[in-house]
Write a structure and sequence with these properties.
Layout lengths: L23 H7 L4 H9 L2 H4 L9 H11 L17
């Protein structure tokens, strides 16, 4: 029997981020960066960010990431030809 995995849902249908506890790999996916890059970003703010408890960062820590690094957006790409305007 094959195991099926469900993709994690980070954004709602309007493109807004669900603010909840996330792991480092989840935050890296949300901000569209490598896990090592995300770790370097977080290491720049040790006093403000604090330590995580267990595998997950708290909601307060996730909110700090959003305030510091900006709000990630959901990008929708339309496959339509580009019209040149003269």
């Amino acid at each position: 029997m094959a195991i099926t995995y469900q993709r994690k849902q980070y954004f709602d249908t309007d493109g807004k981020l669900f603010v909840k506890p996330y792991r480092l790999s989840d935050l890296a996916t949300i901000f569209d960066v490598n896990r090592k890059t995300m770790r370097k970003w977080l290491d720049k703010y040790p006093e403000q960010f604090g330590k995580r408890e267990g595998k997950y960062f708290s909601i307060r820590q996730v909110e700090f990431c959003l305030q510091t690094f900006g709000l990630p957006g959901k990008v929708i790409v339309f496959n339509q030809p580009i019209k040149k305007v003269a």
